[in-house]
Specification:
By secondary structure, this protein is mostly beta strands. About 0% of the residues lie in helices and about 60% in strands. The chain has no helices and eleven strands. The mean pLDDT is about 95.
Length: about 120
């Protein structure tokens, strides 16, 4: 029912910047609690990069603090990730996720985007 679509990935040099965007949409009405980004590099486990909720604010992985900023437009159900001072170790597929609460259902669930590739290389 709910779909997440990411955009903004690409190839950048070390020290460069990228801005990832994610939009949630669906046929039925819903709200989103937490929304954020995970990433997974080849041969590595998935890790949480950043998340944001209205109650708890923003949460960042230690490795990206001071470099990445997560923002949301609650009215439009979108989330962005501004990535500055990128390092080669930031190279990964980045996945948007959202904690979905349907208006007419009692069960929350996690929804994932398809992922967008970020490559940091000289």
């Amino acid at each position: 029912q709910v779909q997440l679509v990411e955009s903004g990935g690409g190839l950048v040099q070390p020290g460069g910047s990228l801005r990832l965007s994610c939009a949630a949409s669906g046929r039925s009405m819903f709200s989103i609690n937490t929304m954020g980004w995970y990433r997974q590099a080849p041969g590595k486990e998935r890790e949480l990069v950043a998340s944001r909720s209205s109650r708890l604010g923003a949460n960042y992985a230690d490795s990206v603090k001071g470099r990445f900023t997560i923002s949301r437009d609650y009215a439009k159900n979108t989330v962005d990730l501004q990535m500055n001072s990128l390092k080669p170790e930031d190279t990964a597929v980045y996945y948007c996720y959202a904690d979905i609460r349907p208006f007419y259902s009692g069960s929350d669930y996690l929804k994932w985007g398809q992922g967008t590739q970020v490559t940091v290389s000289s």
